[in-house]
Amino acid sequence: MRAKRLTFRTLAPGDALRIAELAGDWDVASMTARIPYPYTKQHAEEWMDSIAEEEFVRAILLEGELIGACGYFPSADGSAEIGYWLGKSWWGRGFATEAGEALVRYCFQRGRFRRLTCCHFADNTRSQRVIVKLGFTPTGACQTFCEARRREVPAMRYERRKPALSLFRRRAA
User: Fold this and answer.
1) What percent of the chain has pLDDT over 90?
2) What is the residue range of 145's domain?
3) For residue 72, what are the CA distances in angstroms to 21, 52, 57?
4) What is the mean pLDDT of the chain?
C-alpha cells in the first residue's frame, strides 16, 4: 500500500504499547466496534495475537511513527469489510482519508474484491465524512456493538463497488 504522506507495514510485537496508548483514548475507542475501554498493552497484544490469517491489518505510519491502523476482513460472498482508526492527535488533517484511499485501492487491485463495505457509529460524523470522500454509498442503518461503550450503538452501513472502468483496464492489459 502507498500514500502520499503515509507508509504502512505489518504490526510488530513492539507496537502493543503504542497501540494501547493511542487506541486507549476514550474518543478513539468509543468510535470503534472492537476496542474496549480502558485499553491496555495486554489488550493490544491479545488483539494482535488474534488477528486471523485471512484478515489484513497494517500499521499506519507518519514519518516512521505509528499513528493508527487500518485493514480489512474478507467475507464469504467475496467482499471485504474495511476499518481504520487514528490516534486523536492526527484527526482532522486528512490522514484517515489518505489511509482509506490507499486501503480501498489495495483492496480493489491486490485483494481483487469487487465490493467493499464499512460502517460507522451514527454519532461519528468525522468517519462519515471520510467514508463519503472514499466514494462509499449508504446502504442503511443498523445496530453495532461497541466494546468501549459496552452496548449496541446506532450505526450506518456503506458499500462501494469496484469501478467498472478498472475491470475493463484489467481485461485490456
Assistant:
1) 92
2) 6-172
3) 22, 11, 7
4) 95
Tens digits of residue pLDDT in 101-155: 999 999 999 999 999 999 999 999 999 999 999 999 999 999 999 999 999 999 9
Domain assignment of residue 1, yes or no: no
pLDDT at 165: 63
Q: Of 42, 35, 135, nearest to 86 (Cα)?
A: 35
Q: SS3 letters for 52-87?
A: CCCCEEEEEEECCEEEEEEEEEECCCCCEEEEEEEC
CATH label of the domain that carries residue 94: 3.40.630.30
Structural domains in the chain (count): 1
In DSSP notation, 115-147 reads EEEEEEETT-HHHHHHHHHTT-EEEEEEEEEET
- Write the DSSP symbol of residue 159: E
Return d(Cα 13, Cα 44) in angstroms, integer: 9
